[in-house]
Fold these 2 entries.
Entry 1:
Amino acid sequence: MLNESNVNSYGKSFPAIFDTAQGEILTDHHGRKYIDFFSGAGTLNYGHNHPKLKQEILSFLEYNHVVHCLDMDSSIKSRFLKTFDEVILQPRGLQYKVQFPGPTGTNAVEAAVKLARKVTGRRKIAAFTRSFHGMTATSLALSACCTENHKMNPSQDTIFFPFDGFLGEDTDTCTFFERMITASGSGIELPAAVILETVQGEGGINIAGNKWLQRLRNFTVEKGILLIVDDIQTGCGRTGRFFSFERAGIVPDMVLLSKSISGFGLPLSLILLKPELDIWKPGEHNGTFRSNNLALCTAIGALDFWRTNSLEKSILSNATLIADKLNRLLNESPLVIAVRGIGMMWGIEMESTAAAKGISSELFRKGLMIEVCGPEDTVLKILPPLTITPHYLEEGLNLIINAVLHYVPHSVEELKVLAV
Ligand SMILES: Cc1ncc(COP(=O)(O)O)c(C=O)c1O
């Protein structure tokens, strides 16, 4: 748009001027409708402008509740902390303190790493191949997906290890991790923490197995390495349960939440930390926009969706539908290398960047918003709102199947353009 920096990217992938949005449908200024299989990169798990959450904001403002008060106490913050404990932590037997870093995901990563270093007195952080943790200096240094960017933000304090499956299904990367950390002469310093996404989102929908996660947890406990789970994209139900690590029965030392925690697309970020780690001095990590009160207001409303297991059940039945529909592509399209996913987070790995980008563009022209991911943008990423209606879920999946089955690259020139 006029005068906007060239750094804008989604505006280029989805070239429309969006005007209104409701549930799983966005409408542009010409009145054209798009089914949302993107969900603000995982921020809109409950869809756009959810009526219940919208009402929470309207009444919050109506009564002039305090919108901004830095990290001073407020009635909305106290309600949020109480509700989060009651609805999410207690039923799962989890005991965490809650830190409000700055409002975006990367703020949580930065603060968690800083705390891990303070607690352990060590500097190095272990991260994984194809990881993505954000775009500020420390987060970027931990993001294997962004190696080009590392030239601007060197990552000498990061040690990258192969994620589960990175070296092929038969190679056990956990043994490699353990050996590199423990064996003398490996050249690796004991890290303060290991940070990971249990399902790598930007990295191409790579799923860590339960046993791998359990071994990593046991080993990190044994060695006094803090385990930080970055649930910024995978949390709030995206993979089926509220937290992505629940399926493995592990308890991380710190959990990072952002994106869908506000439930409404408002910036909010949390670090859940084991109480004994809370050695911060007041103000040692601060920022103007913490505990964003409007976002806390919708976050409380969104927690209501987790009071029963009905959302969880519908995510699981949607997961079965998505798997059934997409798996046929593996047999029917030579362009499809793999289909993988869990809950409502799925990826179709295509044989080339041009095919993935070409299909994503074609789908946008047909009224479906779907992004590409993976270090080389070869994976079509399916991330509909968790609350999508069965009608639009099926319609979106059918559009994808048709687009993949009928995709024909038009010319070498077009391939070149799409590959940029
Ligand atoms: C797993 C993960 N961590 C961290 C971030 C960074 O969050 P933000 O863009 O809000 O800084 C993202 C963003 O996509 C993410 O997917």
Entry 2:
Amino acid sequence: MRDARVAVVGATGAVGGVTMRILREHGFENVRAFASARSAGSVLADGTVVEEATADALAAGGIDIALFSVGTEASRELVPHAVRGGAVAIDKSSAYRLEPGIPLVVPEVNGDRVADHDGILANPNCCTIPLTCVLKPLHDAAGLRSVRVSTYQAVSGKGAARAEQLRQEPVEQHDIGFDWTWEGAETDEEAKIRAESQKVLELPELPISATTVRVPVLVGHAESVWIELESELTPEQAETVLGEAPSVRLVDTPTPAASARTDEVLVGRVRRDPAAESGLVLFLACDNLNKGAALNAVQIAERVLDTAWRPLTSA
Ligand SMILES: NC(=O)c1ccc[n+]([C@@H]2O[C@H](COP(=O)([O-])OP(=O)(O)OC[C@H]3O[C@@H](n4cnc5c(N)ncnc54)[C@H](OP(=O)(O)O)[C@@H]3O)[C@@H](O)[C@H]2O)c1
């Protein structure tokens, strides 16, 4: 059903722009672009005229799938209107990710969960998506006992305006490092990676500890991952498992630059962790705007259209 009527809400943003491109590449032809009143009437590079994302416009019907990348507050306000209008909403903010009953989906990991949707599906955080793509096959092979992760996150993760700032200004002027919201001793990003990974992997008790850091890179989040397993896997066995995993590509040196505009999670430097009993260390890089956000959401949309499509009735 690639003739589905799709709305991209937040189409002028960093993730929305990539979403528009991926939809075109995947054969979606009936795509409307929405943003705030600030951008209404502007014309995107592909000629699409941006409409204002008002409650009435989204609730008016005529949208099968609505892909939201507008931020948490705007999502909370606008997503229900799109659902009221009969659309299935796929939201890339953190508004709905941990809500019980709302599927949080990485198609390669828990794609079957799309069937549980009641109008809203959530797309995980841009670090959670690549992390779970790597953890799931290792869990299936040897059981996860604990996970520690340290991130090196690109500035475009903060949106188009922040990425433009990095392009324009000398790196040393940027307040990079720990530009997150704090939740006690943790950043909100660290809490998201733990709770979302537990939900996607359906391992609510899995111990996960994260340290998240912003680095002066435009695109591509990287992660150092320390994994303790229930049973021993040699690095060679782990590479075999990961080499067969969907959306994972083994490379010698996974860098953010190499990951930019690729669809896969690049994984390398797989080695034994000398500080753990059955432990592995690896490094990954993933385009935060692509598989880390837009592509994953389009893949969820395709899964819904192919397997879990049911038009919702308008209120
Ligand atoms: N960047 C990433 O790597 C990444 C990855 C995963 C998830 N996400 C999530 O995706 C969302 C968007 O991120 P982004 O990086 O694309 O941000 P962005 O570049 O700042 O873009 C925000 C988009 O949302 C629109 N918008 C903002 N407030 C709105 C409102 N009240 N009504 C309608 N449209 C509104 C903006 O439209 P105007 O042009 O009119 O301002 C713009 O199109 C956030 O929730 C973010 O957490 C981002």
